[in-house]
Amino acid sequence: MSVARRYDTLLAKGEDRKQRILDVAQRLLTRNGWRSTTLAQIAGEAGVTPAGLLHHFASKEQLL
Q1: Taking the model in full, what pTM does it have?
Q2: How many domains is the chain partitioned into structurally?
Q3: Domain CATH for 48
């Protein structure tokens, strides 16, 4: 596998992960509200670590 192809694969996985985080955030924020939803809850339900979530989104505001 070429370097460019591996990079494309990693990029696609990152975009999939980012979309999964956004989907989970939307669901939890709609169900629980802004104040009752934590980044840790979003990360847990999205299957990423809190650090992984912060890699894609630096704050809860960026999830809107």
Answers
A1: 0.79
A2: 1
A3: 1.10.10.60
Query: 10 Å Cβ neighbour count for 13?
Result: 10
Q: What is the pLDDT of residues 2-55, one digit of tens each?
A: 666 665 665 556 688 999 999 999 999 999 999 999 999 999 999 999 999 999
Q: How far apart are CA 49 and CA 58, in angstroms?
A: 13
Give me the amino acid identity at 44.
Answer: G
Q: Output the DSSP codes for 2-61.
A: -HHHHHHHHHHHHHHHHHHHHHHHHHHHHHH-TTT--HHHHHHHHTS-HHHHHHH-SSGG
